[in-house]
């Protein structure tokens, strides 16, 4: 499962093509590759065939238009995710699921040399700071948009007054 934060942007999907705000992204091929890799690694580690469904979840998009569903990847919004998960039919026995969960939790399943353990609290603080920064950037962008709109409105309504004031000065100067 991959999450993508493209808040307030339009997502367009057609087969193997995905665009965000009109710009083509490689999210679908990347998700296909990652799902296939996860299936291969989990199958090898668990000793049984593990089929993995790739899922792309967009956080707070303005909308998603799906012209043609991708063959192997499911594309959802964060608001659709829980419902989609609840509608999935179980395909594994409890024993198979426990085995896959156990090997999925092992760092060695995913890479040959596991990363050194990090400070979880520091990582959470870093993400909290990043979220605060993103929210601040959204607010600044909204303020700039309002300021530009206000300047435009002022210019439209005050322009005749300014022209009426400046025009006599220009005509008397000549």
What portion of the residues fall into strands of 2 or more residues?
15-25%
Poorly predicted runs are none
How would a crystallographer describe the biggest sheet?
4 strands, mixed
CA gyration radius, whole angstroms: 26 Å
Helix content: 55-70%
How would you write the strand order of the largest sheet?
A: 4-3-2-6
Number of helices: 5
Could you give the order of the helices and strands? EEEEHEEEHHHH
Count every beta strand, where a strand is a DSSP E run of 2 or more residues: 7
Q: What is the general shape?
A: elongated
Structural class, from helix and strand content?
A: alpha/beta
Mean model confidence by pLDDT: 89
End-to-end CA span: 72 Å
């Amino acid at each position: 499962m991959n999450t993508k934060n493209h808040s307030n942007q339009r997502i367009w999907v057609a087969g193997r093509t995905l665009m965000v705000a009109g710009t083509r992204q490689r999210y679908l091929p990347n998700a296909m590759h990652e799902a296939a890799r996860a299936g291969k690694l989990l199958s090898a580690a668990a000793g049984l065939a593990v089929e993995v469904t790739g899922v792309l979840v967009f956080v707070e998009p303005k909308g998603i238009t799906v012209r043609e569903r991708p063959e192997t990847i499911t594309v959802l919004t964060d608001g659709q995710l829980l419902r989609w998960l609840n509608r999935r039919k179980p395909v594994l026995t409890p024993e198979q699921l426990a085995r896959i969960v156990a090997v999925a939790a092992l760092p060695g399943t995913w890479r040959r040399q596991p990363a050194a353990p990090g400070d979880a609290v520091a990582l959470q603080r870093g993400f909290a700071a990043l979220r605060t920064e993103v929210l601040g950037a959204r607010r600044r962008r909204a303020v700039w948009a309002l300021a530009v709109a206000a300047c435009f409105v002022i210019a439209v309504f005050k322009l005749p007054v300014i022209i009426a004031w400046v025009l006599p000065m220009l005509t008397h100067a000549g």
